[in-house]
Amino acid sequence: MGLVLVLMVTVMMTVGGGGIGVAASTAEVHVVGGDNGWDISSDIAAWSADRLFRVGDHIWFAYSSGAGENIVEVGSMEELQACDVTNPIRMYTDGLDSITLDGVGTRFFASSSTDRCKKGLKLNIDVLPQQPIQFHDQMYDADDDAIATGPTTPSAAAEVFDRWVQHQQQQTWECLRIDCSLQRILHSTCIDQQRNSSMKD
Q: 2-131: which CATH topology?
């Protein structure tokens, strides 16, 4: 449980630490197996049954690598169902692995132990396209221009984005006011210098 709590904090820092942005607000983070992580007791199949995975999401595997447990990624459903881990396309061994889902399609993960795989430590993920992003009355796809208009309910991310925009606008106006004040000061100084020069002449 402690490992997963540390993982949750790490995830929040990873996703939120880069500042406010569209990509951070749309990506989901999935800790495989939930509180117990990558473990037979987690019932990985039940955990994944109702979840949606999209391009840009992150999946985290938390497991005890010291117990001889590693995770392999295989290339087909047939290999996954048979727990054939003899020809993996990738292997994860850190005990805390973050994987970014970077393309649409199906990916297959299993325990490197055939016995543990057959006991349920395996996972297939159908990765869907990115979900469109909604901002008030316009909806944008991650790669396209506006594709629909209409009233929408602002999400928490949209409200944060609005506050950020307002803050930037306030800073911009403040900079403009400062710039104008400096210009007035410089203009007044130039006039005073011209007057002093004329009086001397």
A: Immunoglobulin-like (2.60.40)
